[in-house]
Specification:
452 residues; mainly alpha; Rhopdopsin 7-helix transmembrane proteins; 2 domains; 11 helices; extended; transmembrane helix; G-protein coupled receptor
Length: 452
Amino acid sequence: MKCPGIWNDSLVLVRSNFTTECSDNSTETVEKWTAEVIIRVASVMAVMVFTLIGNFLLIALLTYKKSRRRKRVNIFIINLAIGDLAVAFITMSTEIVFIAFNEWVLGPFLCKFAVYLQCVTLSSATFLLTGMSVDRYQVIVRPMQSLARRPKILTKVVCAWFFAFLFALPQLAIFVEEIHIKNGKPVKMCWSHGYTAPWQRKVYFSFLMTYVLIVPSIVMLYCYYKIAKVVWARASTHQHLHQSDTDERTRLKSPPRVSIRTSLVSASKQKVIKMTLTVIVGFLVCLTPYFIISFLRIYSDYKLKLDYALSIAEIIFMVHSALNPVLYGIFALRWEHIKRFHRRVKDRKSIQNEIDKQRAADKRRFYKLQFGIRIFKRRNLYRDTSFIIANHAVTKEKDLQKQEASHLIQHDLSTHDEQIVDNGCYRNSIDTCVFFHAQTNISNISDQETSL
């Protein structure tokens, strides 16, 4: 018999709690790794992997791309990708840990702080989407009126993150770690027991749903509706003017003139409409099911369980972070940028391979140089000859060996008693290797040794 007390079955945003009575003497054993648990862990991990890959790739592409025309939108998209990465590292990771262990194992501090950061990441994504919609509205719908009064792009981004951290502060007081007796064993759970009355949970969730889902949806719908309307009107105006100009030229039998602006506006119109539909539909489809199910459970005092529906809604809720880089990558990037980025990465790999090969070759030549130095030292002990090598010789030039040796013999040696043992000529790959020849008279040395 499943006998939890008041405990959490979700780590996403607001923990969904339900109450049943349970006997502390229950000794029923429950298998942790059931098929349901495995499927849920695998689903969250798959969403997490796609979220990490998609958002890291999106940041890399937007950072590499140096187009000033899309700089304002790119700042929003990069911050949105950072927020989605935070969702993967914080929300999804803690969800996996909770599902796997079937209890809270991260301690009392993370019980408060991790849930707080979960709410921050959710709010930041919502506020950044809303801020980007307002910015596009100001640029396209009211370009002249709002040019002087429009705040800087960084101001909007900072405000989005600030309000995300501010509105999530109640989470620090709501969640606490407590020990619960489950199946006769003590289990640590992270509970939302910070409420002193049931109505407080309903009020707070209503407030959360309002500023995360309802208000941003209304603002985005309004902004994109106005944007689509203005772009459509401008496209129709240019098309009408182009048609009038064509009729006039046909009447006067003058050569036709191609209107590039009309085609650009038409393409822009289609792009804005597609972006409007994808952004709004993606946002509403991913977030609405979770909030509706949680709303029904809380306002029914958890008489409606809806456990399976809640699990599916949580997965869809997290899919939004993996879906964002796809949606915004389609509209913020072009295929040429992706191919250019791929070419650059490929060129860097080939250059790095060439550098590695060159370093390996230089290392082998350095081993040869060490061998030559050992021979040089051994010959120096016999007092045959000596050389001072300026810099470290890297390559051995056999073609210059005889020329250098013959030049030294003609310039320095005057008697046939002096002998030079050929030690080889080394030469630096950048600077010319400098050799100093110190001549030694073997006969004089032998006389000195005899006298000694």
